[in-house]
Design brief:
single chain, about 0% strand, globular
């Protein structure tokens, strides 16, 4: 197995590490930031394995199959866990501000909606299904340039929401951050949904 494929497998193995720090407080207030750093490192392996494979002519059919699969595992995990974190944040906001849950859901924590995640997951499962059908006929479908843009934008969106969630939960001055966070978050999510559907 060559280096690019090892990096791809490493990206997959970093997912449980990312989840561990995001869902536990083993490092106190730093846990969520460690999770953000792990996600950044995992995302960087996506660009690194592709660069090495192309530069040193190490592109293989196994890599063409594993690379987009590892990307999907990482991004889908990111969106699902963000949705779960949103539910926790909404309940926390409702209790802290003595608001009913529907009123609390109007804050920054409701940027990522369940239907957005369903669209993203549906697209990824359909594309993966097509790849599996093609593989059964001896053909390997690699990600095209639109798929690469989609993955990059998904990484950026997840990182932005993860970092914003860490600040919202642990930092001060949330009111000052809220307006620009909502605007940028909405732009990123709309762009992500658009390229996710188009690239599919």
């Amino acid at each position: 197995m060559n280096l690019p494929n090892k990096l791809t497998i490493l990206r997959t193995l970093m997912i449980p590490v990312f989840l561990f720090f995001l869902l536990t407080d083993c490092a106190g207030d730093y846990s969520k930031w460690i999770a953000v750093v792990v996600f950044i490192l995992a995302s960087l392996t996506d660009f690194l394995d592709g660069h090495i494979a192309r530069k040193y002519n190490l592109v293989t059919n196994l890599g063409k199959f594993l690379d987009p699969l590892a990307d999907k595992l990482l991004t889908c995990t990111g969106f699902i866990i963000l949705l779960q974190q949103n539910a926790i944040n909404q309940a926390t906001m409702a209790v802290a501000n003595a608001l009913p849950l529907p009123a609390a859901m109007k804050g920054t924590s409701s940027l990522l909606e369940w239907w957005m995640v369903i669209i993203i997951l549906a697209r990824e499962f359909m594309v993966t299904g097509i790849r599996l059908l093609a593989a059964g006929q001896g053909k390997v479908i690699a990600a095209n340039k639109f798929g690469k843009v989609k993955t990059t934008l998904q990484f950026i969106t997840i990182l932005f929401l993860l970092a914003g969630g860490a600040v919202t939960l642990n930092g001060d001055g949330v009111n000052e951050l809220q307006l620009w966070f909502v605007i940028v978050g909405k732009v990123l999510l709309v762009a992500t949904l658009a390229i996710t559907i188009f690239s599919g």
